[in-house]
Design brief:
By secondary structure, this protein is an alpha+beta fold. The chain folds into 3 domains: about 100 residues, FAD/NAD(P)-binding domain (3-Layer(bba) Sandwich); about 90 residues, 2-Layer Sandwich (D-Amino Acid Oxidase, Chain A, domain 2); about 80 residues. About 25% of the residues lie in helices and about 20% in strands. The strands form 4 sheets. Strands 5, 6, 7, 8 and 9 form a 5-stranded antiparallel β-sheet that branches. A 3-stranded antiparallel β-sheet has the order 1-2-3, with no helix packed on it. Strands 4-11-10 form a 3-stranded mixed β-sheet.
Length: about 350
C-alpha cells in the first residue's frame, strides 16, 4: 500500500506448509517405530504405581511410564483427568480468506502490520503453493467453533487493504476458520507436574508455535531422556521418505515412463495425478480421508474445491484401502460423504 511510510525487513523469515510439516514429523516418527492411534479419545487417566493407564472411549487402554499432554485446545480438559490444571484455555478463533493462483509476483513476502497486545494482526501472505491468503482476526470462541461470518470478513478485508492496494477479492476460492489454544498465561506452558511425576504438559503453544515446534520437541525429548535415563538410538533415521520429484517437464515425463498413473490427472486445478495420490495413501501416516489427501498433495485445494476431483479421490481411497466407498470419510469421525444409494 502506497500509504505505508516505513517497514522492517526480516531476511531470515520463511514460509512453510504447516500440513506437510506436521505430516512429515509424524511420518518420520513412524518410520522410526512410533505407532499412531487415530480416533482415540481419552476418557480416563489412572496413576498406578510407577506408570499411567490411559483409557480410550472404545474401552481400550494404554500403559506408559511417561505421559505427555499436547492436546491443544483440549489440554486443560485432559489435565483435569489427573490433576487440577494451573492454567485455563481461552479459545480464540481466527478467520482467513484464501485466494487462487493468479500472479506469482503479486507479493513475495509475508506482510504484517505492527503487532498489538492481541497478536500480529491481519496479514497478507503467499503460500508454498504460490497462492495467497489474508487474515486472521482474533475473537473469543468455543473449543469447536470453526464457523465464519460476513462481519469478520469485512474486518479482515479492511485491515488487509492497509497492506496491499487492490486486494484480489475476485480470486477468492475459500474462507475458513481455526481455533487457537490460547491460555491465561503469557508464555508457552511446558513443565513436568510436581504432583504426578512423569506427567508433562505442553500447552498454550500459540504464535509463534509452529516456528517453535522443533525446539519444543527437542526440549521435551530431553525431559523424557532424563526421566527414563534413555540413550540415543544410533540407528535413528532423521530423513523423511522422498516424494516423487516433479520440478520440470523432463522429470514428469521420466516419472510417467516408470508409472503411467503419474500421467493420469485427477485434480486439474492443482495438476495432481493418480500416482501422487496413491503415494500419499501408502506412506507411513498415509492419507485415509478426502481431507487427508487434500492437505498432503493439494488435490481439491484449487478453485473448484474438489467439485470435479472429489468423486475420483473417493474411488482411489476406497480401492487402495480395500474398503467400500461408503466408508470413506471427508475428515474426522462421522463425516461420511456417501450415505445411501439413490437408485439401484
Amino acid at each position: 500500500n502506497q500509504s505505508c511510510k516505513f517497514a522492517l525487513y526480516c531476511k531470515d523469515a520463511g514460509i512453510i506448509s504447516p500440513f506437510n510439516l506436521c505430516v512429515g514429523f509424524m511420518e518420520n516418527a513412524m518410520d522410526n517405530g512410533v505407532e499412531l492411534m487415530l480416533n482415540s479419545e481419552v476418557s480416563k487417566i489412572d496413576k498406578i504405581d510407577s506408570f499411567y493407564r490411559v483409557f480410550i472411549k472404545n474401552n481400550k487402554f494404554y500403559d506408559t511410564k511417561v505421559l505427555i499432554n499436547c492436546t491443544g485446545t483440549n489440554s486443560e480438559n485432559v489435565t483435569n483427568l489427573i490433576e487440577k490444571p494451573n492454567f485455563k484455555i481461552i479459545p480464540k478463533k481466527g478467520e482467513y480468506i484464501l485466494f487462487d493462483h493468479f500472479n506469482k509476483d503479486f507479493v513475495h513476502s509475508t506482510l504484517f502490520m505492527c503487532p498489538t497486545k492481541l497478536g500480529k494482526g491481519v496479514l497478507f501472505s503467499p503460500t508454498t503453493s504460490l497462492n495467497y491468503f489474508i487474515g486472521p482476526n482474533n475473537v473469543d470462541s468455543t473449543l469447536t467453533d470453526t464457523s465464519t461470518d460476513s462481519s469478520s470478513f469485512m474486518y479482515i478485508k479492511k485491515e488487509a487493504s492497509k497492506l496491499v492496494n487492490n486486494l484480489p477479492l475476485k480470486e477468492t476460492i475459500r474462507e475458513f476458520a481455526g481455533v487457537r489454544a490460547n491460555t491465561d498465561k503469557d508464555d508457552f506452558i511446558i513443565y513436568e507436574s510436581k504432583i504426578n511425576k512423569s506427567f508433562i504438559n505442553v500447552a498454550g503453544i500459540s504464535s509463534p508455535g509452529l516456528a517453535s515446534s522443533p525446539a519444543i520437541g527437542k526440549y521435551v525429548a530431553n525431559m523424557v531422556k532424563i526421566i527414563l535415563n534413555l540413550k540415543e538410538n544410533i540407528n535413528f533415521n532423521p530423513y523423511v521418505k522422498k516424494h516423487p520429484k516433479i520440478s520440470n517437464q523432463n522429470e514428469y515425463n521420466a516419472l510417467i515412463k516408470l508409472n503411467q498413473l503419474y500421467g493420469h490427472m485427477i485434480c486439474r486445478c492443482e495438476k495432481i495425478s493418480e500416482g501422487q495420490i496413491i503415494d500419499v495413501i501408502h506412506r507411513n501416516c498415509g492419507a485415509r480421508t478426502i481431507k487427508g489427501v487434500k492437505k498432503r498433495i493439494r488435490a481439491g485445494f484449487g478453485k473448484c474445491q474438489g467439485t470435479f476431483c472429489q468423486d475420483e479421490v473417493i474411488k482411489i481411497l476406497a480401492r487402495e484401502l480395500k474398503t467400500s466407498i461408503d466408508n470413506i470419510k471427508y475428515s474426522e469421525v462421522n463425516t461420511t460423504i456417501l450415505k445411501y444409494k439413490s437408485k439401484e
